[in-house]
Each structure stands twice: as structure tokens, then as C-alpha cells.
Design goal:
16 strands; 23% helix
Amino acid sequence: MEHQYIERATGNVVQEQLLADSLVSALYSPALERAPLLSRMASSRYVSRVLGYLNYDNLLSSRATGMLRFLRQSGIPLSEFLGNVADYDTARKVFERQICYWICRPMPQATRAVLCPADARALIGSMEQTSGLYLKQKFFSFPELLGEDSAWHRSFKGGDYAVFRLTPEKYHYTHSPVSGRVLDIYSVEGRYYSCNPNAAVQVLTPFSKNRRVVSILDTDCPNGSRVGRVAMIEVVALMVGQIEQRYSDHRYEGPRTVERGMFLKGGAPKALFRPGSSTVVLLFQAGRIRFAKDLVENQRRSGVRNRFALTLGEPITETDVAVRSLLATPAEEEQCWT
């Protein structure tokens, strides 16, 4: 089954090369759902760690599983790598690479722009049913996503969201999408479901079932982006056992653990996924942002063959975006979608 997305830089429709697609389809098939023990095993921390080791840490296994071949064929631009390219001699090192993002991932000139937090395939939406971007919350359940006991449910009720799906060949640092002060940061326990599109549509609201780290940022502060409160949810996935907080004000220098009270600069490195595929979800308060027009138009574009549209029965197309590129603007500055 094909899965296509739109390349933002060119507008071209691209066929995604899905790693281990047959295995993922088997792991998340309806037949497995009727075997609860096997289903829990497939999404367990143990299986995730074993698959991560075989694909990223064991040279012989990564050749056998096709991970090394996949990475070589993915067209990862070596010119972006920070340091000596020859030092990136394992699949894990390639996955956890640092890049010259200050050169190859420029930010918009608008000082209050909301930025894409990762190199990823993006979907955008609204939790308000009257919006044209309401997706019936197929990808997560609100307020479960924030944690059932979270004190932040009311802040984001009826707001907007964006989902960023990182594929294995992507640069796997996340960057702060806004400038603001950290009001809260906490972990929510969960499973290790794959972020493969087939798994995402088979597992109901998968992103609120996986283990995740939630950061709440207040941007209505001095030097902030002034788009209200923003929730950044970093979600683990199959073969991703750890989200390491590594905030740096300047490039990758002096990385610090993100803590309450810290001020994060928009576009600065925030965390590192270690390793596999993974997801970032952003939540915004109602009426505070407007998504970039091209992302809205791409998502509604018909004739693009992908598993989300086929399963959910409506045009839903991802856009391949670059970290630190434009995601949205403050609502009062520009009307980008209705």
C-alpha cells in the first residue's frame, strides 16, 4: 500500500520508503489485537530496546535488518553533518547526528513566528469541531495526551495542534518552536507503538498511549513569542527508549536539562530522541495562532495516495517540513486559514 507526502520545498508528491513495513503491518494487524498478550509484548519497552540494539548498535544485525542500507539510500546530505563525517561510522551515530542547523535550517525573519520543532512529516488540525481542520482526534485523545491528572487540560481545550512524525533517516534533535518560559515539564508513562503510518491508523489515538515528555511553555512573557501557552509533547516510539533533554542557547554548547523556570529561545536545540522513529505533538490555546497557508492547502490536497486518507476517508496529506521553518503566525498578525 502506497504512502505519499508533499515535499514543502518543491510542492512535489513523494513516495515514502517505509522501513520494515511488512513487519510493522504484522505487529499492528487486527489479528494481533485479538491476542492481547502478543499486542502488549509488541509495544513493550523490552521489545523496543531489542529492536533498537539490532538496528542501531550491532553492525552485523543492522546490515541484516536493512537499517544501514536504508540510511545509505535515504539521501542524507553529508554536507550538513557537524564535525568529521568519517566519525559517523555506525547507524546510531548517524541517527544521533548534530548538524550545522544555523546554516542549513534558517529561521523565518518574523520574530514571533512559531517554528516547526523537527525535521518531520507534519499534519495540522483543530480540536474545535467547527474548524475545517478538525480531524476527529484520530491521532490522539485529548486530554489523555497531556496525562489524565494534568493541570493543563483547560488551557488547551478547543485549541489547535500539529503532529510531526520523524522517520528513521531524519535529524533527531527537537528544537523549541517558540520563545518562552517553562511552566512545567513532566513524563507520562506509556507503551512503545510504532509511528509508521500503518500502525498509526491501526492503533486508536496512538500518540496519547506512548510514553512521552510534556513541556508547557508560557510565551506571554518578556522576550516571548506572544502566542499564549504552548504544550510540546515529545513521544517515544518503537526502538526509541529515551528522550534526552539537551537544551542549548548557542548551537550545541553547554547542553542543559530542561527545568521549570528556564527560558527557551525559539529555534534552539531542546532534546534528542535515542533512536528509531518518533513523534512531536504541539498544542496551542484557542485563537492564538494561524497555521501557514501552504501547510493547510497541502493537507487538503486530493489525489495524493496515503494511508491516513485511505483509512480515515478524507484528504489528509502530510507535508515534509524542516526544523525551524515556519509553522504558524500569531492570530492577530495574519489570517492564514479559516
